[in-house]
Design goal:
Elements (H helix, E strand, L loop, with lengths): L1 H21 L5 H19 L16 H13 L3 H16 L5 H17 L3 H13 L10 H15 L5 H9 L9 H13 L2 H9 L8 H20 L5 H4 L7 H4 L1 H11 L6 H20 L3 H8 L9 H15 L2 H14 L6 H14 L3 H28 L3 H9 L4 E2 L2 E2 L2 H10 L5 H30 L8 H31 L6 H18 L5 H44 L10 H37 L6 H27 L3 H140 L1
Antiparallel strand pairs: 1-2
Helix pairs in contact: 1-25, 2-24, 2-29, 3-4, 3-5, 4-5, 5-6, 6-7, 7-9, 8-9, 9-10, 9-11, 10-11, 11-14, 11-15, 14-15, 15-16, 15-17, 16-17, 17-18, 18-19, 19-20, 19-29, 20-29, 21-29, 22-29, 23-29, 24-25, 24-28, 24-29, 25-28, 26-27
Length: about 800
């Protein structure tokens, strides 16, 4: 027992030395003053605590801030982010957390984001909702623009049968705005319905100071052009309009040309107005081209500036003007600029063949041959892949599944993107790929929604569920910080106690003091200020980031192994091409080993995906209430118990007047701290009860939305089953048409190569004939000169 006592004394001395080096150099008076000040500060902060912050505080992101962020995403063409942001604005209004002004802005901008991203039916829904509210301010400000967009949607989707319903909806709107947008939209609607007289009346009555005056004047020119086509007997089809070069066509189109010229004379005072003026020049060029006034068409086309959105479209049409007038070099130069600056404007095959034809016509036979061969070498393999794809996929249902899954590959060879673009254009009239894209987009939205619900469930099931409620989380952190500040008060009292009496004790007092000193370092790391809480949260995120980075390194290693496996497969498949022969047994053994390694790699990838999901789940569970805060509570409680026990033991041992006097002076401070801590614990319990209630409510919403997600998934599967056979058949026919188109391209390239050879032969024969004629002429001249010489010589004799 004596040895144990000495060991205890020695360990206590070592702990005292370690604590003395780690703690602040405070004497008893300073420690007591610091503790007293801490209690006063906590008492003042307790009075300002709010245990029900959600009843008064605003959302974390106000609607105005969301609208600004969404508008920035819309201007930078990040349509998915813009749609998500504006959808939050609309949802905040439905929850009663935003006003009507924000709802009107968010609803219109959401429709704009849908429209610009090509989701026309979704855009129609938002614009229609705006029109339903158009008789109420502030929605009336968007009535005209929404109506015009609904007309655009009907024209883009080919649903002209929806125009009467749009007109009926417009007649219910009595509100008008000073900008004239509603009158312009009504005129545009009348034009789309074919009521040219009403359209001219509405558009012609628009005020010249209206921001839509330029657009209205342009539509008036389009109306005059349509009327001229009707007078010429041309229908609405492209074939009929292509035959508009009839006697007197130029005179019939003169009113439309004059109207478009008036548009070009309007002031270009804004970017939309400059675009309207450029569109007018483009229309003038087209009308002059169709009436064979090629020089006037070129003069109109070159008025369009290269910064205009229609510049590249103009450049392509200008190239055809040069072709018509026989200036093949300028036409070729225009196409070259267009192929480099805006390759999506041109059909790549037609562009390549046209350039080759121009080279051939201008006598550059070698370059024409290279261009024809380039087109053939590019599209002949694509034709073979489409043939293989169609031959390998005969079931429309399987074919549709492969389209939806975007796995259109044949023997590892992916179909070129240009082929898919042509198939989409081929099937555009029947909206085949629109259905496929909508299904793919819907599945992606459901997948993201299911993942979001999983994250919310993970947050609500974790002790750190308060992070789902930012206002409550902030109040909890403030309350917990005050409790930790009271723990620092006890720590200051303990520092002053050690300054009064640093003697090592044995027995229970020595053990209590040693354990209390050991906990002081851990107690000092408890967060008190908002910066401390933020720092702790960042530490937790960094730990999960390290795990994520380790997973990324493993993923890169898996990708490297997959590349090795792909290389080995290629070596096995192409060994005979390079003259390497192996016996069948060795080849089968190598093949089996490669397949086994690939199966193992697939297992590793599935584990990596599972670990990545665990990391994401762990990252969302970092925050107030996790195990670190539970450890803080355990340390605080244990430290309080040890300090109180130590003071009792010191009083019982009668250690000295200094120690007893210090204990008597700090006892009121500890009593006040205990009372404040009890109050804070009650507030903390109230906040946690509020979090629990909010969590239950949110959990019900998540469960409800999860059930909706499953219902939507079932409905999507049912729709998918209904559309699979029909869409698969139509898509297969579209691919067959594209295959025929590819065959035509290859055939045209082959014909061009033959024509190049024929033109080269004709050119060489022409040269030969010219040389022969020149030679015969020279011989004739020599004979004549020789005859003259002989005649002169005979006369001299």
């Amino acid at each position: 027992m004596v040895g144990l006592g000495r060991a205890g004394v020695l360990s206590g001395a070592l702990l005292t030395l370690c604590w003395a080096r780690a703690s602040h150099a405070l004497d008893a008076d300073a420690a007591r003053a610091e503790a007293q000040q801490g209690v006063v500060s906590v008492r003042a902060d307790v009075a300002r605590l709010n245990t029900n912050p959600t009843a008064r505080e605003k959302p974390q992101h106000p609607p105005e801030q969301l609208i600004a962020a969404g508008d920035l995403s819309l201007r930078t063409k990040d349509y998915d982010q813009a749609i998500d942001t504006f959808s939050q604005v609309v949802e905040l209004f439905r929850q009663g957390k935003s006003d009507r002004n924000a709802h009107a802005d968010g609803l219109f901008l959401l429709g704009e984001a849908y429209f610009e991203s090509g989701q026309l039916l979704s855009a129609r829904r938002e614009y229609g909702e705006l029109l339903d509210l158009a008789n109420q301010p502030p929605y009336d400000a968007y009535a005209g623009r929404s109506l015009a967009r609904l007309v655009d949607v009907a024209l883009h989707t080919g649903r002209l049968d929806s125009l009467p319903a749009i007109a009926q909806q417009a007649r219910k709107i009595s509100a008008r705005d000073a900008s004239g947008s509603f009158e312009y939209a009504l005129g545009k609607l009348s034009f789309a319905q074919g009521d040219f007289g009403e359209a001219r009346r509405l558009l012609g009555g628009l005020d010249a100071h209206s921001p839509y005056y330029h657009q209205a004047q342009y539509v008036l020119g389009a109306i005059l052009m349509k009327q001229a086509l009707a007078e010429a007997g041309a229908g609405s089809s492209a074939e009929a309009q292509a035959r508009l070069v009839l006697p007197g066509a130029a005179q019939r189109f003169e009113p439309a040309l004059a109207q478009f010229r008036r548009v070009t004379e309007l002031p270009a005072d804004s970017a939309p107005h400059r675009q309207v003026i450029d569109e007018a020049w483009l229309a003038i060029g087209r009308l002059n081209y169709e009436t064979e006034a090629y020089l006037d068409a070129a003069a109109a086309y070159i008025r369009i500036d290269r910064t205009s959105p229609v510049y590249y479209e103009m450049l392509f049409e200008l190239a055809w003007v040069y072709v018509r007038v026989g200036d093949y070099q300028r036409a070729e130069r225009a196409l070259e600029i267009l192929s480099v600056a805006s390759p999506d404007t041109l059909d790549v095959a037609d562009s390549g063949l046209l350039r080759a034809d121009l080279m051939l016509r201008s006598g550059r036979f070698d370059r024409a041959l290279e261009a024809y061969k380039e087109v053939r070498d590019r599209f002949d393999p694509a034709r073979e892949r489409v043939d293989s794809f169609l031959a390998a996929t005969t079931d429309p249902a399987v074919y549709y599944d492969r389209l939806v899954e975007e796995s259109m590959e044949v023997s590892g060879a992916k179909l070129p993107d240009v082929v898919l673009d042509w198939v989409r254009q081929e099937a555009r009239g029947e909206r085949v790929f629109a259905v496929i894209e909508d299904v793919t987009h819907a599945r992606d939205v459901l997948r993201r929604s299911r993942r979001l619900a999983s994250k919310l469930n993970a947050v609500l099931a974790a002790p750190s569920r308060a992070r789902a409620f930012p206002e409550l989380k902030a109040s909890l952190e403030r309350t917990d910080g005050l409790i930790n500040q009271l723990a620092q008060v006890r720590r200051s009292v303990a520092i002053g106690l050690d300054d009064v009496d640093q003697r090592p004790f044995s027995g229970e007092l020595g053990q209590v003091r040693a354990e209390r000193r050991e906990l002081m370092g851990r107690l000092n790391s408890a967060p008190v200020t908002p910066a401390d809480f933020l720092r702790r949260e960042e530490q937790g995120n960094r730990s999960w980031n390290r795990a994520s980075q380790a997973l990324q390194r493993v993923t890169l290693e898996a990708d490297r192994l997959q590349a090795v496996i792909n290389g080995l497969r290629r070596v096995l498949d192409e060994a005979e091409k390079h003259g390497v022969t192996r016996d069948p047994a060795s080849r089968a053994r190598f093949q089996a080993e490669v397949e086994a390694n690939e199966r193992d790699l697939a297992v590793y990838r599935s584990r990596i995906d599972a670990y990545r999901q665990d990391v994401e789940t762990g990252r969302v569970q970092v925050g107030f209430g996790d195990r670190r805060y539970a450890e803080d509570e355990r340390v605080r409680r244990r430290f309080s118990e040890l300090l109180d026990r130590e003071l009792v033991l010191l009083q019982q041992m009668n250690v000295g007047e200094d120690s007893l006097g210090y204990i008597r002076s700090v006892t009121p401070i500890l009593v006040d701290a205990r009372g404040l801590e009890q109050t804070l614990q009650e507030k903390l319990v109230a906040l946690e009860a509020n979090v629990a209630a909010q969590s239950e409510q949110l959990q019900r919403l998540v469960d409800e939305e999860s059930s909706h997600i499953e219902q939507y998934t079932q409905k999507l599967d049912a729709l998918d089953q209904h559309a699979r056979l029909l869409v698969g058949e139509v898509a297969m026919r579209s691919f067959a048409n594209v295959r025929d188109h590819l065959k035509g391209i290859v055939l045209r390239a082959d014909v061009g190569i033959v024509q190049q050879a024929w033109e080269l032969r004709e050119e060489q024969q022409q040269r030969l004939q010219n040389l022969q004629r020149q030679r015969a002429l020279e011989e004739q001249n020599l004979d004549d000169e020789l005859r003259e010489v002989f005649d002169d010589a005979g006369e001299a004799l």
